[in-house]
């Protein structure tokens, strides 16, 4: 294999690869429809020219056929008048015009066949273009869907390792940290309140206990009955215990004031 053949093959291979990569299905389909429509326009023009030619040939045929009939009638008239020479001349004219009419008739038949074929081809091309337009819209929709899906998959693939996804994860950690600190602050604030209420409740218990003790002391001094013959002894002997009670009561009062 020669060097130029190898170079030519390499160049053609690279060009084909470039063309394949550059082909966009949507653009290629649009261009294909445009090309088909241009062919349709040219075919319509060809059909129109063929029909026009057919009409002219038909007119010429009818004209020559009419002239041939006229010369036939003139030949009959000349023969009836006894002028054979004139009748012969009329018949020669008739033959010439009739030959032309026969030629035109053959052309007309060919042109009619050609026009019919062109019309069928025109109808077939119009049907193909209509079908191609429908298929083009369908293929374009499929191509768009495939491109969108490919782009989505590519985006999802990048999300796993992208810095944006890492930023989301870091922000999620920070939000969780803020929530934990807020919860801790709330719990600490609740503990302080519990302590304050516990202190109040403790003070209330002391007051209740003091009130109960007062009631006990007051009830005991009133309800104790005085025994006959020993009232003085009880009064004398009870002075010391009463003084101790008062001292204890005073100490309790001081303790309460210090709370």
TrEMBL record:
Residue ranges the record marks as coiled coil: 26-74, 101-188
Zinc recorded as keyword: no
Record's keyword annotation contains 4Fe-4S: no
Region (Disordered): 212-259
Basic and acidic residues bias spans: 250-259
Keywords: Coiled coil
Matches recorded under Pfam families: PspA_IM30
Cited PANTHER family: MEMBRANE-ASSOCIATED PROTEIN VIPP1, CHLOROPLASTIC, PHAGE SHOCK PROTEIN A
Entry similarity comment: Belongs to the PspA/Vipp/IM30 family.
Protein name: PspA/IM30 family
